């Protein structure tokens, strides 16, 4: 099966990186990433914290000397599994619908942000966004 989605044309806004013309390192789009081995014991910057950027950063963090994850404004990092192995999408569809109808927005955000920070302290890694969950 070959699946082609809206990420099939890589977006590389190199004009946003002053000095890129003299940069001697390697840069490429996540579409061209294959394995972490060529990055062993090297310093790497992953730009973007979407699904691809996050997955690549996690994989590379196990082999690189130093890994930096660059994000425009931080992000709430969601796990795929909830407590007791329940898939997050199943939990969110049923429980969140009920909570949205019965709790004020600020309370709902505070509860979810607190739960997310128990698993991963966003402020500690400078990823806590200014926007609410």
Task: Give your account of this protein's structure.
- By secondary structure, the protein is mainly α.
- It has helices at residues 51-61, 88-102, 105-119, and strands at 43-47, 66-70.
- It has two domains: 23-70, FAD/NAD(P)-binding domain (3-Layer(bba) Sandwich); 78-133, no CATH class.
- The protein contains three helices and two strands, in the order E-H-E-H-H.
- Strands 1-2 form a two-stranded parallel ribbon.
- It is elongated.
Please give a handful of descriptors for the protein shown.
133 residues; 2 domains; two-stranded parallel ribbon; 2 strands; 31% helix; 8% strand
Shape: elongated
The SS-based structural class is mainly alpha
Give the rounded overall mean pLDDT. 86
Oligomer: single chain
Radius of gyration over C-alpha positions, nearest whole angstrom? 18 Å
Number of domains: 2
Q: What is the helix fraction of residues, given as a range?
A: 25-40%
Per DSSP E runs of 2 or more residues, the count of β-strands stands at 2
Number of helical regions: 3
| Head-to-tail CA distance between termini | 35 Å
Largest sheet: 2 strands, parallel
- Secondary-structure element series: EHEHH
| Approximate strand percentage | 5-15%
Strand order of the largest sheet: 1-2
- Spans of at least 5 consecutive residues with low confidence: none
């Amino acid at each position: 099966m070959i699946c082609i989605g809206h990420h099939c044309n890589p977006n590389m806004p190199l004009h946003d990186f002053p000095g890129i013309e003299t940069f001697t390192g390697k840069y490429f789009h996540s579409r061209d990433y294959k394995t972490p081995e060529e990055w062993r014991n090297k310093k790497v910057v992953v730009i973007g914290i979407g699904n691809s950027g996050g997955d690549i950063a996690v994989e590379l963090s196990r082999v690189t000397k130093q890994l930096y994850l660059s994000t425009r404004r931080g992000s709430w990092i969601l796990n795929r599994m909830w407590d007791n192995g329940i898939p997050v999408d199943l939990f969110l569809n049923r429980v969140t619908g009920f909570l949205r109808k019965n709790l004020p927005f600020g309370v709902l955000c505070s509860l979810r942000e607190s739960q997310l920070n128990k698993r991963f302290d966003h402020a500690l890694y400078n990823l806590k966004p200014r926007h609410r969950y």
